[in-house]
Amino acid sequence: MRNLKSYAPLSKASASPSTEGDAMPESDSHFMLILGKPGGGKGTISKKILKDFSNFTHFSTGDMLRQHVREKTPIGKEAKKHMDSGRLVPDDLIIELVLDEAHKEARKGNSMLLDGFPRNIAQAQALDKCVEVELVVNLDIPNETIVERISDRWIHPASGRIYNYSYNPPKVHGKDDVTGEDLIQREDDKPETVLKRLESYEAVTAPLVDYYMEKGVLQTFSGTESDVIYPMVNKWINGELEKNKRPQ
Ligand code: AMP
Q: Quick check: 14 and 95 in contact, CB under 8 A?
């Protein structure tokens, strides 16, 4: 895997002699990130990318953490306190989880699309030690559009099914299509929490744009409609992958 740098797991618990500093075989795998404000369409654009670039595996840290919360694991219990109030979970909780996953995929020779990580410079630096990030898609969506969209998003808490009253409404208002149970608004989708998340994004995550721009791997896509933005994203990824192809 050309992307995999020598990697030592952070905790003794997950360290095994065979994974520390492994030299990996070469293969045509790539590592891509998607950056953007919470609720700014990262999930939608990611889905489109995965459909067109099927050798990429999707890994969303938000989805992973929500699964831990649903399953009430020790990580989920700790993460919930931070997530419910719109704050990032602590770095020491998230970094190891993500690097382990990135390392696992990299060892299999898979390409990966990471969604929701890194969220700050410390996370980016930790990732840099593990893999070579080649492509960063940065979505730039106006705040008003985000607040409007998020207030339309309701979920079925037991399954994690997500509905949106604008473009993916439930068959019966307020009820899950499969079970008929009540839909709720995620604690972190409530307007006051959304605003906190946007502030936190500006303060902590926006510097990542400069970080990856300096490395020459980032492209910004601005707009409000994913159907308009995506064709530009697709074209850029294709061009970059073509450019990064090494002679056989
Ligand atoms: P998301 O679905 O990506 O917006 O993530 C939902 C919540 O999970 C965030 O508001 C954070 O509390 C937490 N989270 C997700 N990814 C990270 C990360 N890389 N670092 C810290 N917290 C995260």
A: no
